[in-house]
Amino acid sequence: MTFPKNPTLDDALAVVQRDQPVNRTLDLPPLQVKVKHGDVLVLSDQEVTARLASIYRVAGHDPALAQKLTDTQLRLWVLYAANLLAVNQDAVPGFDFKAALTWLVGNIPAEPVMPAPDRREFELQVLGRTGWLRAALKANVQRLPDQVRQQAAALYGPPPSASTAQSGPGASSGQTPPLDKELLRKELLPKLQNLLVNHAVQWRRQQGQERRFQRWEDLGLIARLAQAVAWQTLQPYAAACGDGPFFTGFDYFSKIYDKTATMPTEQDLVKHLMNRAYVAGEDTSTGKSVFTLAGYDSMRSDDRLFLFEMLRQWITGDPSMRKLAVYFFQHIGSNSHADGGGVGLVTEFRTDRPESQSRWETIETIVHEMAHSLIHPNFRAQVEKVRRPMVIKEGFIEVITREVFNWMIDNRSAASTTRLMAGVEGQVVAPVRKTTLGYAESGAYADQIFQFVGRERFLTAFMTGDVELVGLSPS
């Protein structure tokens, strides 16, 4: 670009105008947002105060309060935000414009993100936090057809047929037979032991081969990158939850800890085994699942308590199983952020494959565990209301993992790959896109639901908690 030797006023104004907020149509697929800021910057202080007073009045506040807002940037932010809501209110039938303005006036940020011609953070913040995005996404999709809803409901765990239903102690409203405890113990524990054995042998080393660990600072960089990628790739859905993690100071890296160096409690061990017990118990690769044969019903608290106690006794009564359980705990990622805990990451490199392959797997795990922190609490609560809880608890998480991880792979550059592979020894192998979801049947069922309801409904429900969009009951 050539700059004039003797710049004129028009040249200077062109530079100024280039960096000012512009009127445009912002694409937030599947939505389009009108951005009309008006010529706010040329308003006098008196004119700005008058407009602010009008906004305060519509929002149900005392107009005189507008005079107490003296910070120039905050005053402009309110005008820009109110304009944005005003020009888009009719795009969402029934949108409560007054309620949105009331929230806006009552929650003016101390350090606001200002509008910019080549960025969208301002629009995401205003439209997300005031509820416009959530309302717009819900209005953009049709009601889930009954056939699709029934197909999805069957994948969450249909009740047994009437011929197998029983009543009496242990039954659940006459829908499931009582639990056969001995059959569950006899069939489930060997499958679970086999699962733990197969997991442990993946970490075997040749004699004399030293353990290698990933550097914490490298995992921290990946964690922050994963959060940034999620924020970009999951829009506008991530911003549709006005009080979600991206708006409330969520810092993924601050939540993670070294799982490999952590000694678990008995409670920790059993909780981890419960997850795998569901994987083993719902496995249908050789016929009917153990849970079906034993009449296990995850919606019955007595059944869940029995399973938990059975696993506790298993690892306390067998030293070998306890050792395997501890090793499993230290070599599998986990997320207890929703319960006030942290996100555990495995720092040890696997030695049965190139370190770079092990790193790509770690990156996928980092994305998976982050997705647990993004799911809406209303959605998470559905886990106890379906007979296949792992479809929601892990299967849906795998769908989100695929969205973010595959974007990281598809859009990687030589420079970003170098950063992601920091600390890795040996040749860097190419990553493999995630096509098959983990957690066996639970992942497969979640993927089928994703296909049935579509990406828009799925991501909206996951982020906003509007679970009816994916065939669940909000009651």
Low-confidence stretches: 160-174
SSE topology string: HEEHHHHHHHHHEHHHHEEHHHHHH
In terms of quaternary structure, the protein is single chain
Strand content: under 5%
Q: Counting H and I runs of at least 4 residues, what is the number of helices?
A: 20
Could you describe the largest sheet, including whether it forms a barrel? 3 strands, mixed
Structural class: mainly alpha
- Give the CA-based shape: globular
Indicate the percent of residues in helices. Answer: 40-55%
Strands of the widest sheet, in order across it, are 3-5-4
- Computed CA radius of gyration, to the nearest angstrom: 27 Å
Region (Disordered): 154-178
Biased composition (Polar residues): 162-176
Can you give a write-up of this model?
By secondary structure, the protein is mostly helical. Among the domains are: 118 residues, no CATH class; 202 residues, no CATH class. The protein has 20 helices and five strands. The strands form two sheets. It has a three-stranded mixed beta sheet. Strands 1-2 form a two-stranded antiparallel ribbon. The longest helix has 22 residues. The N and C termini lie far apart (61 Å). 36% of the residues are buried. About 3% of the residues have low confidence.
